[in-house]
Amino acid sequence: MQVSLVELAPVRASGTKHEALAAAVSAATEAEGFGYHRIWYAEHNHTPAFASQDPATLIALAAARTNRIRVGSGAVLLNHYRPFHVAERFQQLEALTPGRIDLGLGRATAGPLVHPGHSSVSFADQLRELLAHQHRGFPGNHPFATVDITAGIGGVPQVWVLGSSGKSAGLAGELRLGYVFAGFINPTAAVDSLRAYRESFAGAGQHRGMLALNIVAADDMVSAHRLTWPARALKQLRLTGDEIFVPTLAQAAKLLSPVAKQQPSHFDGSTIPAQLSGTVESLREQLSRIVELTGATEIMVQDMLVDGAERSRSRELIAAAVTGI
């Protein structure tokens, strides 16, 4: 089983986006050393809590500092852009780092759009246009029919569709693309969404259904569970409208109530928790059952840890757990 990582570049209280971005780029070399298959960078627009706003910039920096790991976007929010711009930009990344670039695509569902006019075009139509740019799929009378963004480049980025509700699962299957379900947002819909993707997968070829989960790990179960607190505290800050930042473990301990601290973080065989925690052995057992339940072909890790040593150790242990499945 392959394990991958999505990096949000979380910003701690009193920290800077400069510091968060430096840590996010360094995370790529660390992840490669731990054996992760890919690292993706998120697109979080106009938010103080996360510094990853332009995945392509971070992809270029991370790819230049690594040798093997695939590097991509998780995700470019396509309704902010024109498909040609995204396709050409990622084609240049492919030219710089052949065979290692992933283009994960999603859509913005909250906050103002940078280009509101693009919202009148469906995500499906935008996605089909982008793929036509990649594969010269426009009919002969189309204005883009003679445009070849792949000229002189041996391949194209691997395209993935990201979703959190299951609505895009069928589209990804129909177009024979990879599909990533954001289980850290909506874990209860993971089983049905990944099943819908597999059932809609058209024609021959291997479907690629990835499950992204909020996962943390430590050398003992109590410490591992405590590492779920920053993610819980961040959600609480969002709900209360307080200043938004990603809390450290110590700050989360002060913010959360005793009840919130004890919310489940262990897979019970049927319900996938919003935050999953454990030791190497525990996570291996939990994730084996989750993979069996969902049919996922790859696990992607998301975390909300800003304490450097704890984050590094957690990611190292998770890699050991997943690669042992």
TrEMBL record:
Its EC number is 1.14.13.107. The keyword ATP-binding does not apply. Keywords: Monooxygenase, Oxidoreductase. It is an enzyme of class 1 (oxidoreductase). Residues 2-292 form the Luciferase-like domain. GO terms for cellular component: cytosol. The keyword Oxidoreductase applies. One of its GO terms (molecular function) is limonene 1,2-monooxygenase [NAD(P)H) activity. InterPro entries: Bact_Lucif_Oxidored, CmoO-like, Luciferase-like_dom, Luciferase-like_sf. Gene3D superfamilies: Luciferase-like domain. To bacterial alkanal monooxygenase alpha and beta chains. This is Limonene 1,2-monooxygenase. It comes from Corynebacterium occultum.
